[in-house]
Design brief:
The protein is α/β, with parallel strands linked by helices. The chain folds into 2 domains: about 1-35, no CATH class; about 70-225, Ribonuclease H-like superfamily/Ribonuclease H (Nucleotidyltransferase, domain 5, 2-Layer Sandwich). The chain is built from 8 helices and 5 strands. Pfam families: rve (PF00665), rve_2 (PF13333).
Length: about 230
């Protein structure tokens, strides 16, 4: 993983029974030359055909009372060792900020969005009364994706155009994903990338990494309280 900031570093130390102030942790990190990783800006994607758009039903209500009530999804990119570009589609649960699905592909298309959602539903036994929030990207407004959501009884919600704050939990997740994972590794094969993505998302992020939205419990610890 990448280098956490001083606040997260203090959380790791507290979990290891080492109590230091934020100021002290920052001082030691500076003395040791440890700097938190800065994340790159999200890329602009080409627009495609729009089959159907939806209102912002989530409306920045990023708290969920139970698991599998509200999910958020988005895309980002990953560069391979030889410069080839791969795309990641992930879905997180707003109840505990856990990653419920994370898939990679050489194409950023509706198929990747659908397959990621299928994986998330299968991992969580096809929950009912689910809301899925995304931006207005052509992948999410496509007929293939909107029809699949309708078949599964999923209520789609979409950010206003050009308003990333409407999907800020995904922006936050991808900021962490880029800082702790993408910026620190280079992959020569898709198999290496896919295996490492699963390890990061399902093992490290869900079970080891504390999350501020959970009161610095891990997503797994938060879910176990549900």
């Amino acid at each position: 993983s990448g280098n956490p900031g001083y606040r997260m570093m203090r959380v790791y130390l507290l979990r290891a029974k080492i109590s230091l102030s934020n100021t002290t942790v920052l001082k030691y990190m500076q003395e040791l030359g440890i700097r938190s990783t800065v994340t790159p800006k999200k890329p602009a994607y080409k627009k495609g055909d729009c089959y159907k758009k939806f209102e912002n039903h989530l409306n920045r209500k990023f708290h969920a009372e139970k698991p599998n009530e509200k999910w958020c999804t988005d895309f980002t990119y990953i560069f391979m060792e030889d410069g080839r570009k791969r795309y990641n589609c992930s879905i997180i649960d707003l109840f505990d900020r856990s990653v419920v699905a994370a898939l990679n592909s050489s194409h950023i298309d509706a198929e990747l969005a659908v397959q990621t959602l299928k994986a998330a539903l299968e991992r969580n036994y096809h929950p009912k009364n689910l809301m899925l929030h995304s931006d207005q990207g052509s992948q999410y407004t496509s007929r293939a994706f909107t029809d699949y959501c309708k078949e599964e009884g999923i209520e789609q919600s979409m950010s206003k155009a050009g308003c990333p704050y409407d999907n800020s939990p995904m922006e936050s997740f991808y900021g962490t994903f880029k800082a702790e994972f993408i910026s620190k590794h280079r992959f020569s094969t898709d198999e290496e990338l896919n295996n490492a993505t699963m390890d990061y998302a399902y093992a490290y992020y869900n079970h080891i990494r504390p999350h501020s939205s959970n009161g610095y419990m891990t997503p797994f610890e938060k879910r176990m309280q549900a």
